[in-house]
Amino acid sequence: MSKTVSITSAAQFDGLLKSSRLLVVDFYADWCGPCKQVAPVFEKLSQALSRENLVTFAKVDTDSQKDIAQAYNVTSLPTFIVFRNGKVADKVTGANPLKLQAVVKKLSDEAASLQNNGGEGSSGGDSDDNWRGAGLPRGYTDITSQIEVQRTDLLNVDLTTGGVRALFQSSKPSALSKGKSATKDWVESDTDQQLMLFLPFQSMLKLHTIQITSIPPTESDDDEDDDEVPTRPRTIKLFTNRPHNLDFDEAEDMAATQQIELSESDWNADGTANIPLRYVKFQNINSLVLFVVDGEGDSEKTRLDRIRLIGEAGEKREMGKLGKIGDEPGE
């Protein structure tokens, strides 16, 4: 009996992305001759390597499931996509059995590692060393690594908390881990609730979503007995394609590329707000200024634990050179 899953809906596909560590998908059509030629190879691999909740093989008919095919930019058939923890890890286009077998050989080794470790492989997206506070929107990846960290600039930061680099760590925030951390891996504002963060990028980005994690301590936290308990951001302004950081008066008066108002319901159990952007306004950007205008409470401090950028990375630019592309629209 075939172990390959035939996808009949987007909901079913999303379920497999969440339930299986590794998902190998054959995008095909009944009228496609090359698809039929390579189908037996795919089926043999499915029979040999399928592992419940670890490795799943699936087929997507691009005629009946056009939305799924479009979401992953499938423009030629057959196309094979390997997903790892819900993210695109590899892609093979065309009826190329040798290339498909090479990709799946790599998959086979990883599957064996997953099985030997009881399903807890080192590449898991939810591990403490590769942590993200919210899931990825379909078709996009985590591009936080595109930040040119050495040129970032953070204004009004309390110097007794972690530096700006702490915001982009891939590790799980210490506030969500057991026990106390010896070092503070988050940042807090200093004299008031406002923070101004300048992020230059290594390449031109198409930014789809920002994920912000903020985990203020409770008032009963022993470490905060002598300090004012910080709060989460409420109002955030975003400015794109700036050659350097803004000052606070300038940012207060300037029209933002997008202004965001967060409420308590926007924060999930891991203290993360998943913020979708007006995608058309965040195409081809080489920098971002994130301005925390105010926090949600009366505290004079706001806190940020992690920031993740989700989207697509384009052509890499020469490091250290950042030019303003054009004027921002005034709305």
Automatic annotation (TrEMBL):
<feature type="domain" description="Thioredoxin">
    <location>
        <begin position="1"/>
        <end position="109"/>
    </location>
</feature>
<dbReference type="InterPro" id="IPR037047">
    <property type="entry name" value="PITH_dom_sf"/>
</dbReference>
<feature type="region of interest" description="Disordered">
    <location>
        <begin position="114"/>
        <end position="137"/>
    </location>
</feature>
<dbReference type="InterPro" id="IPR013766">
    <property type="entry name" value="Thioredoxin_domain"/>
</dbReference>
<dbReference type="Pfam" id="PF06201">
    <property type="entry name" value="PITH"/>
</dbReference>
<comment type="similarity">
    <text>Belongs to the thioredoxin family.</text>
</comment>
<protein>
    <submittedName>
        <fullName>PITH domain-containing protein</fullName>
    </submittedName>
</protein>
<dbReference type="GO" id="GO:0015035">
    <property type="term" value="F:protein-disulfide reductase activity"/>
</dbReference>
<dbReference type="InterPro" id="IPR017937">
    <property type="entry name" value="Thioredoxin_CS"/>
</dbReference>
<keyword id="KW-1015">Disulfide bond</keyword>
<dbReference type="Pfam" id="PF00085">
    <property type="entry name" value="Thioredoxin"/>
</dbReference>
<dbReference type="InterPro" id="IPR010400">
    <property type="entry name" value="PITH_dom"/>
</dbReference>
<dbReference type="GO" id="GO:0005737">
    <property type="term" value="C:cytoplasm"/>
</dbReference>
<dbReference type="InterPro" id="IPR036249">
    <property type="entry name" value="Thioredoxin-like_sf"/>
</dbReference>
<feature type="domain" description="PITH">
    <location>
        <begin position="132"/>
        <end position="329"/>
    </location>
</feature>
<dbReference type="InterPro" id="IPR005746">
    <property type="entry name" value="Thioredoxin"/>
</dbReference>
<dbReference type="InterPro" id="IPR008979">
    <property type="entry name" value="Galactose-bd-like_sf"/>
</dbReference>
